[in-house]
Write the structure tokens for this entry.
Amino acid sequence: MEEDFSKYNGEGTMLRKAQLRMVDILVAIDKVCRDNGINYWIDYGTLLGAVRHKGFIPWDDDIDICVLTEDYPKIREALLLELPEQFVLQDSKTDKRAFFRYGRVRDCNSYCYYPYFIKLKKQGLWVDIFKTDRVLSKKSKQLIDYFYRRTYRETHHYGDVAYSSLFKRIIWKLCAYLAHPFFASVMHIYTFGAKIGGRGLLSHFAYNYSCMWANERNIFPLSEVEFEGHKFFAPHDCDSHLKMRYGDYMQLPPEDKRKPMLDLEKIKIW
């Protein structure tokens, strides 16, 4: 007998309402991308949910899409111009306290509390747009991105919400401002070299995650998958891609691991 997942996101629950609002955001992003010929693909738990559940992982509370880093300026410009008024693009250029190195489309008609985001201008439900880089080698990417990531987030006010100690905030920020220009230059050189000499390995590095690897041949040319009754772009070989990410991805986690990231009691939707 199939497991009943309604205890997580049954109709009318706050989690389900939040999930459906995120789908609205994704539908808007998808339309902008299709209208402008911009490639993106759903990934991480969103792709896993699409393949395993035809929609959200029942206890999941976010949506992730990816674009090649070289395509991010195009999707950014298009979203700024063409998103419905209910949604706004948020990144370090629209909000100086956005310490993440990627884009995020926020819903203006909701609010969700998350401690690291309390000083951002917009704090509604969101969809993440991760920049995905070509890589020369895993070790080189991990080393360079580790230092670049740490200095980047400190120069974008991560310490203001992450560290309660004023002394620690000042020390980390001072070190970051001194070191970040060097690591940013190294990152630009590395990215240029990877475009020329990359061997089909892709990576995304968020502000606090480990490197997530992918093979370009598993992603392009893009296909489509069903997610919550809609069709969205996805990797060409979802099975190989998900196995690389998660191993036996059809195996459900134990019940004590099935928890949403957000505090559902602090979500408001109107």
